[in-house]
What we know:
Elements: E1 6-10, H1 14-36, E2 39-43, H2 50-56, E3 66-70, E4 72-74, H3 84-91, E5 101-102, H4 116-126, E6 132-135, H5 153-157, E7 165-168, E8 177-180, H6 182-186, E9 190-195, H7 198-209, H8 219-222, E10 229-233
Parallel strand pairs: 1-10, 2-3, 2-6, 3-5, 6-9, 9-10
Antiparallel strand pairs: 4-8, 7-8
Amino acid sequence: MMSNNVNFHTFETQADLIDELSQSIARQLQGAIDKNGKASLLVSGGRTPQPLFETLRQMDLAWEKVSIGLCDERWVPSSHEDSNEKLVKTYLLQAHAGKAEFVGMYHDDMPVDEAEKACTAKIKETLFPFDVVILGMGNDAHTASLFPKNVKLKKAFDIDSQELCVAMKPKNAPHMRMSLTRSAILSAKHLYLHFEGKEKLGVYQEALEGDDMYAMPIRSVLHQNITEVEVYYR
Length: 234
């Protein structure tokens, strides 16, 4: 099962990938600033995007007009080593990009299950509609914090949902999570999927060939006719 909405870009080196991806993202952000006077960028955590962040932060943009948010967050304080907010502030909100506004997901005054509506309201007010969303993918085919066979996936996958955020309890990963919903992700004007390594390429190819989104949540992004997905791989 192939998707006509997926454009696959492959690169010989990480440097080549990062150069082209960062240039593409910068063009999209600049286009949004030129059109609307502002832009929003939603990013993922983990090790894979760190070199991208280190390149993006040096881009000559009107970063003071850019708001940066997260595709998902571990429900831990921003000072915690596992916090995506901490990672993004450490690697992306530096140099030129230090002028950008950061909008976090974590609410320290409420449990994750109670924070879904507050998180949705905050993101709608500050980041929505999304200009650029950059997803990653795990070896288990999760994306954002949409994990395989999770009990909350039916809610998370509802394409007609107005909710942007869903609380998730992973079975095989630490910490409760907050994640963008499928409808939120696919609302992006420009949607990127960035992953690296042969193991993840195998996961990606398996995801393309089947259609069970609950077994491989990345399929909820790859198999749809709403938004084009630009895949960057090395």
